[in-house]
Structure formats: C-alpha cells, structure tokens
Amino acid sequence: NVYRGLARDEAERILAKPEAEREESLAKLMDEAQEILRTRSGIRPDFAASVRRMLGRIQSGQSKAEPKQQQGRLVAALIYFINPLDAIPDDLGEDGFADDDRVVRESLSG
Is this prediction's pTM over 0.85? Predict the structure, then answer.
C-alpha cells in the first residue's frame, strides 16, 4: 500500500545518511516508538513484544550485519509503526494496530 511505500522511501533516506546522522535519526524514531508503547492503549502485549524485538535488533546493531534489504525492512517497519496515519488509523485502538502488527512481524521474519 501507499503507506508502506512511503515508509520504505523514508527508511532508504535514513539509511543513506552518514553514520552519525543515521544513528541520530534512528535514535529519535526508536524513542518515539518507546513513547507509543508506554502511552497508547490498544496495543496487545504480543504486538508490543514484537515491536521491542524489532527495536532491539535495530538498537543493538544486529541489523547492520544483515543484508541492506533487511535493514531497510526493519527501519521501514519502525517508521510505519510510529506513523498514526497508515492503512488502518491507529486511533481505532487495537484494530488500528492490526496493520502495524503485520508489518512489524514481516520485518522480523524478513
């Protein structure tokens, strides 16, 4: 869908930045994701665990050892998750995160 495409484009832009800028951008995105997990209702525990696994892979640098395409999937999924306006708006509570759940799980199985 168009929202996944926009997230992929933004992930490519971030990953193309010089390392210091890239790490700063990723840190900001990960902070946003952690804030969403702390403050939003409607996020199922199993989905929150998947998001935390994804954040852990990005933060620990594991994604750097992976193929560039997989790095892009992880970062695109992170961007998709923090964007409240996607295929199913996040304001719809648990149902609003169903598409985010699918995108995050696909990025982890990569």
Answer: yes
